[in-house]
Amino acid sequence: MLFAWHARQDYPLIFAGNRDEAYHRPSTPAAFWDDEPDIFAGRDLDKGGTWLGVSRSGRIATVTNYRTGFARRDEAPRSRGELVASYLRSHEPPDQYLQRVIPNAAQYRDFCLIVGNPDQLCFYSNRGRGPEEIARGIHGLSNHLLDTPWPKVRIGRERVDRKSTRLNSSHMSES
User: Fold this and answer.
1) Measured between alpha carbons, how far is 166 from 152 in angstroms, rounded to an integer?
2) Sheet of 137-140: strands edge to edge?
3) Could you tell me the sign of the dihedral formed by the alpha carbons of 41, 95, 118, 112, in that order?
4) Model confidence pLDDT, tens digit, residues 143-152
5) Nearest 10 degrees: CA dihedral of 152, 79, 22, 49?
């Protein structure tokens, strides 16, 4: 996934990503949930969570797996998708929510989690550094820690930056 967080004044968040894990798992496309009409997200029909969602109040959350090379399905009793759904249901600031996740992080397979609201965007992985607030700018997340320079992240960030620079230049000349 690639995203620009307050990189442009006219768009506080620009996000591009795809779901590329567990295609066999039944899911629904993004829509407002019947049982939680304030949440707009796809839904994992097996476990009930989601990989990406937003709420009417402006909360956003997404989770990716952290690739280690081995799937250890028997070691993690809880679905990572519940981390996203739980955040979207909550009213806690992003940094406080992540502090609540940390004590239970070992109950999930390896993950990278981004949670935010219009004022703050935060990252946490149970495979790396502690929670951190995400700085304004263009970022990428694959199946490793935030902004790890994997080729697809590095190339994607460069392309988004070039496009954003052109858009900002043309927008400035129109002013």
Assistant:
1) 21
2) 13-16, 2-5, 137-140
3) negative
4) 899 999 988 8
5) -90
Q: How many residues does the chain have?
A: 175
- Residue 166 CA, distance from chain mean position: 26
What digits encode the pLDDT tens for the residues 28-55? 999 999 999 999 999 999 899 999 999 9
Chain CA centroid to CA 16, Å = 10
Q: What is the DSSP string of 147-171?
A: T---HHHHHHHHHHHHHHHHHHHHH
Instruction: List Cβ neighbours of 47 (8 Å cut-off, separation of 6 or more).
Output: 79, 81, 82
Residue carrying structure tokens 């029909």: 45
**Helix, strand or coil, per DSSP, at residue 169:** helix
Are 139 and 2 spatial neighbours (Cβ–Cβ below 8 Å)?
yes
Confirm if 148 and 121 have CB atoms less than 8 A apart.
no
